[in-house]
Task: structure prediction
Amino acid sequence: MDGLLDEPRPGTSRKLSDKDVERVLALTLESTPADATHWSTRSLAKKAGLSRASIHRIWRAFSLAPHRSETFKLSKDPLFIDKVRDIVGLYLAPPDRALVLRVDEKSQIQALDRTAPLLPMRPGQIERRTHDYARHGITSLFAALDTKTGKVIGQTQQRHRSEEFRRFLDTIEANVPADLDVHLILDNYGTHKAALIRNWMAKRHRFHLHFTPTSASWLNLVERWFAALTEKQLRRGVHRSTKELKEAITAFINNHNKDPKPFVWHKTADQILNSVARFCMRTLETGH
Result:
C-alpha cells in the first residue's frame, strides 16, 4: 500500500481559494452593480479583483447565468386544485366510449410577405430574409386535438367571436360518431362561455365542458400543437394573401393527420400540485 502514490499531473495548481469562490457567489446572488440590474463577467471581475475567465468558471460550476431571465405566472383561480385534477384525470384515464378534445383558437394569424425575395440557404450561408414585411390580412384558426390519436380538427375563420366558435362546434359534432360522448377542454375566454354557446350545449347532452384554471393554458395541450404550427409553417412562411395563408394551414393539418402522434401526459395531479406548492414557497421566501 505504501507504493500507491500519485504520479505528477499536468496543469498548474489551483489558484482560486474557497474564500474567493464564496465571495463571488455572495456578490452574484446578494448584490447588483450600481449601474445595472445584473452582473456581467467583466463588471464582477473588476469588483472582485479576479479575471473574467475565473468568474465564468465559477458561474458555470454553480449553474449561474445572471444575464438570463425567465417569466412565470401563478394561477389565482379559487378552483385551481379541482380543475387540475379534473383535466389531468381526463388525460391519464379518459372515460370509456368518449372522445377527449383539447380545443382552442389561435387568433390574429397574419399573412406576411417579405419586402424582397428570400435568399436561399447555400453552403456557408444560412437563409436570409428582410427584417420588414408587408401585411396582407389576418385569419383565425379553431382547432380540436384528439387526446388519444393526436389527430386535429381545424377550421379557419375570419374572426373569433362566439358565432365562429359555434360554427366550429358544429364541425366537431359532424366529425365525431354520434354514439360517443365528447369532452372538450377549454380555456376561460369569454367566447367559450357566451349565451349562444350555453344554449348550443344545452341541446346536446353528450357534450361536456372542462375549463382550465385561469392563467394555466399549459394544461391545454393544443397549445403545444399551435407551437409546432408556428415553428414549422407560420414563422418563416411567405403568404401573399389570406387565401394562401389558409391553404398553408389546411395543408399543415392534413399532413399532420396522415401520421398523427399524440402528446403523452406523464405527471399526475398530485405531482403538479406539489410542484406548484414548492414554487409558491420559493416566491414567498424571496420576501417580495
